[in-house]
């Protein structure tokens, strides 16, 4: 049985408790982070901690613990749960208060963390096979740059993909791809990597930031702009990035093969660089 962290205590998962009045439960009034673990170490913890701070500040929420304590909690859970490859999930909610739409004046934020073991995460077969995606309208709220726990529409998107025999969905708004249900989306045309510019319409992926930096260091050309599904279907390659999938090729969009319909060299190279560099800097 896993040990999880709840509001200051490490407890067996079946003893962890959160109030029925918790605003995360009642209003999705909470934010989260997912940090991957390779070789028992955290990948880009500093990036996730910085984004958490920003998400909290956008929602006028206090961080329940310092960044140093947060790192210590992550490390402790990785250690006691013997995670070699996997994830640490963290959630901060505004806490428990009598139900009212207005933010309560004095709720104490709730902090929950747990691990998920994912043996073979770095060596996922999907990276060699590639993913098939469908396009769906983006029906999420407008502040997707805040990493909130309102994930119902992305969940519905995954189910739509599954019903269509695909692996995931890319969401489209005003004719342009925003992002995947739980990842950032990219295409490659010639020697140029294209991914949507940052804004309130997408989550500012921590993996995205690292991959774009590494692509620039490797002299690859990057354009941050919108693209359409038609442009993606006509691209040489497509891929997604996220903390839990790293760089994952996309080989089919709405039933149309992308390029040769097989994982391409740019995605493969970026995946390799990303995994190498991230392992070196893991904490
Ligand atoms: N976009 C969305 C909507 C996501 O949910 C995620 C990850 O959960 C990402 C992008 C990728 O972000 P990161 O690289 O920080 O995991």
UniProtKB/TrEMBL annotation:
Its EC number is 2.6.1.42. PROSITE patterns: AA_TRANSFER_CLASS_4. One of its GO terms (molecular function) is D-alanine-2-oxoglutarate aminotransferase activity. Keywords: Amino-acid biosynthesis, Aminotransferase, Branched-chain amino acid biosynthesis, Pyridoxal phosphate, Transferase. Its cofactor is pyridoxal 5'-phosphate. Pathway: Amino-acid biosynthesis; L-valine biosynthesis; L-valine from pyruvate: step 4/4; Amino-acid biosynthesis; L-isoleucine biosynthesis; L-isoleucine from 2-oxobutanoate: step 4/4; Amino-acid biosynthesis; L-leucine biosynthesis; L-leucine from 3-methyl-2-oxobutanoate: step 4/4. InterPro entries: Aminotrans_IV (IPR001544), Aminotrans_IV_CS (IPR018300), Aminotransferase-like (IPR036038), BCAT-like_C (IPR043132), BCAT-like_N (IPR043131), Class-IV_PLP-Dep_Aminotrnsfr (IPR050571). It comes from the Bacteria. Gene3D superfamilies: 3.30.470.10, D-amino Acid Aminotransferase, subunit A, domain 2. The keyword Amino-acid biosynthesis applies. It catalyses: L-leucine + 2-oxoglutarate = 4-methyl-2-oxopentanoate + L-glutamate; L-valine + 2-oxoglutarate = 3-methyl-2-oxobutanoate + L-glutamate; L-isoleucine + 2-oxoglutarate = (S)-3-methyl-2-oxopentanoate + L-glutamate. Belongs to the class-IV pyridoxal-phosphate-dependent aminotransferase family. Acts on leucine, isoleucine and valine. This is Probable branched-chain-amino-acid aminotransferase. It comes from Jannaschia ovalis.
